[in-house]
Amino acid sequence: MFDALSDQFNGIFDCIRGKGIIRDSDLAKTLGEIRHALLEADVALPVVKDFIAGVKEASSGEEIVRSVSAGQMIIKIVHDRLVALLGGEDDASTLQLGVSPPAVVMLVGLQGTGKTTTTAKLAVHLRDKLKKKALLVSLDTTRPAAQEQLQVLAEQAGLPALPIVSGQQPQDIAKRALQAAQLASHEVILLDTAGRLQIDEMLMREVVEIKRLTNPCETLLVADALGGQDTLNVAQKFHEVLGISGVVLSRMDGDSRGGVALSLRAATGRPIKFLGVGETINDLEPFHPDRLARRILGMGDVVSLVERAREQVSEEEAENMAQHLQKGLFDLNDLAKQLQQVRKMGGISSIMGMLPGIGKMQKQLASAGMNDRMLGRQTAIISSMTKQERTKPAIIYASRKKRIAAGSGSSVQEVNKLLKQFLSMQKIMKKMRSKGLNSGGMPAIDPSRIPEELRNMLPPR
Ligand SMILES: Nc1nc2c(ncn2[C@@H]2O[C@H](COP(=O)(O)OP(=O)(O)OP(=O)(O)O)[C@@H](O)[C@H]2O)c(=O)[nH]1
Ligand SMILES: [Mg+2]
């Protein structure tokens, strides 16, 4: 996500970071480079112009360009402007559900943008993160088997869906959904609607009518991040006709250059609330402008990283690991567990992307073979060892190495490399222990070690 843009910003900032006085010509050059980077990321031209004008105005003051840390101040200005461009400080992903239940959330959008998938993803999000019970309802009577598609997703995720009554019209299904939700005390109703071509007046009229009937708290447009300028036009049109409250941007896992995400707010005046980042029902991320801006600018996103660690690694698991390590018992089972934790948290590149100032190092690590494939291979190597070998790696001599290599589809060199890596980790753990430091498995998940200002930003456990 945003890799190319992030690389460009890193390069641009490297040139000004340590600078004291910034001359007008330096500022003009920096602004030119930012403009170029944004255009290359497919950000809409008027948005780019506005952005550059805003940064220029804020940076031109005498007190900034002549200050001792002019470079840093300009970086801060770009950051703040980027946050504003993405939707401001507000936590946009908070759904407005504050009416007497059931709160209706309606999803609309062009054909194939991901409405049905997003409906299921949102229900999972509501259930798992907000502890709210949502009823899934498909109003798509246009495409064959569309209602069944939602039903299947609901079943897979163990979510309630409104039973299908064949032949019923969308308006009638919506009314039935309202009654059913009241009876079964569902707090939220998620309405998946039929995909439409923009020009399809009849289908447009249908959503307007359904909106009038159900009075949704949220009318979310599901838009495709890969659609470029078309996506922006569609969003404007939907907003004009229907009045949307926010956008879910799907396919952010594809090779979107980020332009749509950066232009949508300016184009519609409506916030992006969630990002779709894959095809499974868990692939939905709340949209946080400030965190995303930091990621784009290579400043890291430690808050999301800590949250992800909390979600993926239970407190008990972390506690067990820490105790084990404190006793100086770091063995290959522990290494396997740590590799697995890294994978659960999205893999090396995803974690690296969230750490501050890691841009260049990420490339070096990747070229040294530190990547997610390596994680998989190392896990396979450890799985091919016997229980005894894992707790006592010292017994692994040549013939055992050969067997392990064959069993894991790797080479003896790779087994050697892993063992060497393990030994140096073990040494570090021992050293830390002798110095009385807690070497704990995943430092990020021990709340007492998170700086207070970060802790305050986290949701309660
Ligand atoms: N990679 C990726 N694929 C997605 C994402 N969201 C949806 N898809 C895929 O896009 C395809 C279409 O998704 P649907 O949810 O059926 O789209 P829809 O808008 O309901 O389509 P219609 O009802 O036909 O208009 C499916 O194959 C989904 O798995 C996403 O965030 N990333
Ligand atoms: Mg659909």
Descriptive notes:
57% of the residues lie in helices and 8% in strands. The chain has helices at 3-16, 24-40, 45-59, 62-65, 70-86, 115-130, 146-157, 170-183, 201-214, 228-242, 259-268, 289-296, 302-312, 315-326, 332-344, 347-352, 359-367, 372-383, 387-391, 398-408, 412-434, 452-457; strands at 103-108, 134-138, 188-192, 218-224, 246-250, 272-276, 284-286. The chain contains 22 helices and 7 strands. A 7-stranded mixed beta sheet has the order 2-3-1-4-5-6-7, sandwiched between helices. It binds guanosine-5'-triphosphate and magnesium ion. Residues 109, 111-117, 140, 143, 146, 195, 250-251, 253-254, 276-279, 283 line the site of guanosine-5'-triphosphate. Guanosine-5'-triphosphate (GTP) binds next to α6.
